[in-house]
Amino acid sequence: MEADFSEMRNELQSRDALWRRIQLECQQLHTELLKIKEYKNMQEIQIKHQSSCVQITEQLENKNAELLLLAQSQEHQQEELNKIRNHLYREEQAHRSEQERMKTEISDLTEELHQKEITIATIMEKASLLERQLKMELEIKDKLLAKQQLLDFRYKVIKSENTHLKEMV
Predict the structure, then answer these.
(1) pLDDT digit string (tens) for 47-65?
(2) By the 8 A CB rule, do 14 and 84 touch?
(3) Among residues 5, 142, 19, which one has the least CA distance to residue 71?
(4) Is residue 121 part of a domain?
(5) By residue range, what is the domain housing residue 147?
(6) Which pLDDT belongs to residue 70?
(7) What is the distance between the alpha carbons of residues 84 and 5, in angstroms, rounded to a whole number?
(8) Within 13 Å of residue 109, how many CA atoms lie on the same side as its CB?
(9) Which terminus of the chain is more exposed, N or C, with fewer CB under 10 A?
(10) Inter-axis angle of helices 2-46 and 50-168, to 10 degrees?
(11) Residue 5 and residue 91: Cα distance in Å, rounded?
């Protein structure tokens, strides 16, 4: 997209340069036209020949026709230049709005990531707490199991003694 902008700028500069050359030529032709008019006036005063007047008039008309063509070409070039400028402006605006949209999207995603990181940290904290609680409960259950096994053993011993005592009696 940057290459398109650069190409458009180059074309715009090229057309600007052409426009300036056309204006300079117009000024030169206008100056030449004024000189021709002066020359024509001097010739009319000095020389009374009709043929010279006709020739100068034809040259003047030719120069006028050239000026008209140059003016039309200049208008066409100006229109083209304006179209290119408008197109370039629209492209730059579209590029800027796309950049803004991407910045907003990145900001939103960054915020979402931050929230997820907070959620993960909270879950990890809770998991750690639950793990400690489970370990404590396992320790308590292990102690209770050991007590129960001891009590079972004592019960069997007492039962065995009772059985032995009953047999003795």
Answers:
(1) 665 565 567 678 878 888 8
(2) no
(3) 19
(4) yes
(5) 7-168
(6) 81
(7) 11
(8) 6
(9) C
(10) 170
(11) 8
CA distance 53 to 131: 114
Is the residue at 1 inside a domain? no
Euclidean distance between CA atoms 17 and 77, whole angstroms = 11
Our count of domains for the chain comes to 1
Q: Are 53 and 42 in contact (CB under 8 A)?
A: no
Place of tokens 């700028």: 9
pLDDT (0 to 100) of residue 69 = 85
